[in-house]
Amino acid sequence: MSSALEILAERVRAAADAKKPLRIRGAGTKDFYGRPIVGDLLDTRGYSGIVEYEPTELVVTARCGTPLSDIERTLAERSQMLAFEPPHFGEATIGGAIATGLSGPRRATAGAVRDFVLGVRIVDGRGQDLRFGGQVMKNVAGYDISRVVAGSLGTLAVIAEISLKVLPLPAATATMVRDATEADAITMMNKWGGQSLPISATCFADGRLYVRLSGAAAALRAAQPQIGGEPLSDGQRFWESLREQTHPFFAETCELWRLSVPSVTPPLALGTTLIEWGGAQRWVAGTGNAAAIREPAIKARGHATLFRSSGARDDVFTPLAPSIAKIHRNLKQAFDPNGIFNPGRMYAGL
Amino acid sequence: MELIDVKFAQPDKERLVRELSAILPRESLLTKHEELKPYECDGLAVYRNVPLAVALPSTEQQVQATLRLCRDLNVPVVARGAGTGLSGGAMPHDQGIVLSLAKFNRILSIDPIARTARVQPGVRNLAISQAAEVYGMYFAPDPSSQIACTIGGNVAENSGGVHCLKYGLTVHNILAVRAYTIHGELLEIGGNMLDSPGYDLLALVTGSEGLLAVTTEVTVRLLPAPVKARVVLAAFDRIEQAGQAVADVIGAGIIPGGMEIMDQKVTQAVEPYVHAGYPLEAEAILLVESDGTEEEVEEEIEKINALLERAGASELRVSHSEQERYKFWSGRKAAFPAIGRMTPDYYCIDGTVPRKRLAEMLRGIGEMEKKYGLRCANVFHAGDGNLHPLIMFDANKPGEIERTEAFAAEILELSVRVGGTITGEHGVGIEKINQMCVQFSKAELQTMHAVKQAFDTPGLLNPGKAVPSLRRCAEYGKMHVHGGNLPHPELPRF
């Protein structure tokens, strides 16, 4: 074990012995996300660097503290990318990107963070150094623990290293934009989703429907008339503004909700809405009344997350059904028996 | 070593049958030896156990009541789909029952707009794509057993197929699962949206080999069927060249719909049956398929052709019709039965290795052929490094089964040594239970046992499979220590 990792594991063992909570943190760019927590800071940035990158194997392995931008730059030099387009929100680390499990505009067509996780090396709540999954595309030996750790908000383990599947950058990209109502935008997004089209992202914002096409140049030329609208010249900047939430829509809200719903859900009439992921992800501004947002989301057979808030953040994630909550508590107990990792960041008691 | 080393108190069969018959209609409960016999194994017929009874529930209430009864009586439960699995995952426990989901065989709904299908676990994989065809859609995972295997089994094994580098495994193509725990508690995991709050339990139950919960419904994602598909057939004098050609294609930024290598033993075995016109003097045949829109495919095929030519292909053919495309693929699809005609028995192995280690793997297998005196043919999902060596043997010749098992174990352990895994898509089941001790440390296995406990406190669902007991590993370790050295001293042990 390298000394930097040994230091991390030692900190965990000491915290476990003392039963003192730890607040696992990379660069802290997503401190706003999840429920507020207390605990001694465990900074993961000391364990950093790309361990292995084999472009022709489509796999990159990196230590948790590696800046996300370093990884993306290294991949881009070989014309590859992290296809789930993780948001940075600043100098993010790969560990934080995986632990928060947030995906960007390409999610609906390429997949989420968890879809690209091939393996992890973790430090569990006893300070044990464990590996699950691996560096190969197909691996069904044992339970798929690496995908469970992704998106668990640091409540199960410290992610020490992560192996991710990477994909080639598309040969060409173009963005088309047209005016649309919210209802028409949802209908079109779903219609296109059922066709063999090279769509890599969609967005409805401010009365306009944006479609990003990615792939072979010839395929884009053929698809453009099918999608219709006008080409957008600074498309890349537009999609980046969604991923990084610098788009004006996000500036206006002091309480930002993220709704994950079936893509075909009609407009929910919750005020100004920004739609992504072919209709499956909807952003709305809140007014301090969680039920007013969450109930319609649940009624649509989805869920709602209080993504950012300048006020209270106790009720961030949609409550779990009792049988599912019980499994969560049991899993927490399995990985972190002393309850030292980010306690309460996801739900009270986890 | 015992096949299943997790044992329970011998149950009172009479009471078990009596109480099961209060839950299940007469035709849904099998108890006579001759009725139970067909359930004694799955697709891996070398390992067999006759269960005490087979329950064939047709409603969720019956599943729930059966599970609760088994929990109360401390009786192991092995869930079963079509029984096509290749790792003994559905082999019964001799002190327990088989819970067959065969009667859960309905497609409940297809939503062509949302591109989802809600299906019962006993629905066959191919039947989903056939039902979705009218909407121009399909279910992407296509294991070679797709005519027979069920979606419930696909979820249990996280099944792949020849298209998974581009389209993913089962875990990437399902949205929701309804499942019951051994306590009869319903778990509604996932939904019709792209993510759920909390931990990713959908990923955890997918590939859990029936150890965590019993699936009663699956919601799958449907994809628009590609408008066009073409395949390039390339012959290589040396298998290393074929491996390098695969790396060249991927390095050039192409993710083909399918990419398969067959070695010479396979092409020579299949050619007399399929007449695909494979160049038989070539050491390896590589098939690369491009799919998508017309324009995408034309552009990609041109690039692939040029890359393969540069990689030293001795012969190159591109399919010009659907008929020709099927012909090129026919040998790959017929590989297993064709090998089956050459030998009384064959044993299919399922390791995955980093592609760059393929040549080393194949050299290793070549040496093992000599060591064990058995022939081995190789097919390879080249895009994702999943190798299927087929060891040919004769079960009637004394000692051949044992030699085959030792050969298989050595291949799997070599897979781990070169940075791969003992199973890419067939699952651990009972077959690779000992090799789990090589791939994982004691603490890692303990964590997996704790995960099982989180779902199945009494440990009654498919006991003794997938994750070996630490006792078993200690025993296996002793068998494998030679001259005081641990096997694979270079592996990290924490």
Shape of chain A: globular
Kindly state the number of beta strands of chain A: 17
How much helicity do the residues of chain A have? Answer: 25-40%
Strand content of chain A: 25-35%
Q: Average pLDDT across residues of chain A?
A: 96
> How many individual β-strands of chain B?
19
The greatest inter-chain interface is formed by:
A-B, 89 and 99 residues
Secondary structure: helix percent of chain B: 25-40%
Uncertain stretches of 5 or more adjacent residues of chain A: none
Main sheet overview of chain A: 8 strands, antiparallel
Derived structural class of chain B = alpha+beta
Low-confidence segments of chain B, ≥5 residues, pLDDT <50?
Answer: 481-494
The neighbouring-strand order within the major sheet of chain A is 13-10-12-11-15-16-14-17
SS strand fraction of chain B: 15-25%
What is the count of helical runs of chain B? 17
Radius of gyration of chain B: 23 Å
The main β sheet of chain B shows up as: 8 strands, antiparallel
Task: Characterise the protein shown here.
- The complex is a heterodimer of chains A (350) and B (494).
- Chain A is of the alpha+beta class and 350 residues long.
- Chain A has helices at residues 3-18, 68-77, 94-100, 107-110, 113-116, 145-149, 182-193, 217-227, 235-243, 248-251, 290-299, 322-335, and strands spanning 22-25, 40-43, 50-54, 59-63, 80-81, 117-123, 129-133, 158-165, 167-168, 172-179, 199-205, 208-215, 230-231, 255-260, 273-276, 281-285, 303-309.
- In chain A, the strands form 4 sheets. In chain A, strands 13-10-12-11-15-16-14-17 form an 8-stranded antiparallel beta sheet, with helices on both faces. In chain A, strands 3-4-8-6-7 form a 5-stranded antiparallel beta sheet.
- The model of chain A has no long low-confidence stretch (mean pLDDT 96).
- By secondary structure, chain B is an alpha+beta fold.
- In chain B, 36% of the residues lie in helices and 19% in strands.
- Chain B has helices spanning 13-23, 33-36, 60-73, 125-132, 151-157, 164-167, 201-205, 239-251, 264-274, 294-310, 322-333, 335-342, 358-372, 400-417, 436-439, 442-455, 470-480; strands at 29-30, 53-55, 77-80, 97-100, 107-111, 116-119, 137-138, 174-180, 186-190, 214-221, 223-224, 228-236, 258-263, 284-292, 315-318, 345-348, 351-352, 375-381, 386-393.
- In chain B, strands 12, 13, 14, 15, 16, 17, 18 and 19 form an 8-stranded antiparallel beta sheet that branches. A 5-stranded antiparallel beta sheet of chain B has the order 5-6-10-8-9.
- In chain B, a hairpin with a 5-residue loop joins strand 8 (174-180) and strand 9.
- Classes of the chains: A alpha+beta (350), B alpha+beta (494).
- At the A-B interface, strand 7, helix 6, strand 9, helix 7 and helix 8 of A face strand 9, helix 7, helix 8, helix 10 and helix 16 of B.
